[in-house]
């Protein structure tokens, strides 16, 4: 049970996953971080937590194929059996998805299929809906698409600002993602749906 978390930026979900592992809530033999951005804050989080970092800067490769091939080579060295995308700002190629079919999870800050894309929280906020949420799903060839594993609803309160809503969504993410990873490793992913935070 070896997990790779892919992240490009802040890394709060990465930290939540590592914390759950350290607390024994997820039984994982090893965890690594794969990051595509040399200056990303998530790298500092990983170093502080003692997690091995694989840095794959797209600029160092002439094609996406070479970039992904380098990542795949490292993943096989560490015998990775699950990839958790956590703010990884790249669409993986169909060939990559095929290689790890049903072994790539993603977390998205909306109740998919609503509000795909990079501005999901803002989009839901501006639609003045009573609620939005968080989705963990299996990754397929389409962006923010694939079988839903867990979803949690998050209320949009009348006095919410975008910042307060974002904060509440992120704190739900930090509970939901470790739960989904735990389900994957316990082989329960097929029947798991609609767990609430
Ligand atoms: C999260 O909101 C996640 O849902 C989305 O990207 C964001 C990553 O945040 N896919 P962080 O880097 O984990 O803080």
What would you say about this model in short?
The protein is built from six helices and seven strands; from the N terminus they run βαβαβαβαβαββα. By secondary structure, it is α/β, with parallel strands linked by helices. The longest helix has 24 residues, at 162-185.
Explain what you see.
There is one protein chain. The protein is of the alpha/beta class and 197 residues long. Helix content is 36%, strand content 21%. It is built from 6 helices and 7 strands, in the order E-H-E-H-E-H-E-H-E-H-E-E-H. A 7-stranded mixed beta sheet has the order 3-2-1-4-5-6-7, sandwiched between helices. Helix 2 links the parallel strand 2 and strand 3 (52-55). Helix 1 runs parallel beside helix 2 (41-49) and helix 1 packs across helix 6. The longest helix is centred in the C-terminal third of the chain and has 24 residues, at 162-185. The chain is globular and about 50 Å long. The two termini are 25 Å apart. Mean pLDDT is 95; it is low at 191-197. 5-O-phosphono-beta-D-ribofuranosylamine (GRF) binds at residues 7, 9-14, 86-87, 107-109, 173.
Mean pLDDT: 95
Which segments are poorly predicted (pLDDT under 50) over 5 or more consecutive residues?
Answer: 191-197
CA radius of gyration is 16 Å
Distance between the termini: 25 Å
Number of helices: 6
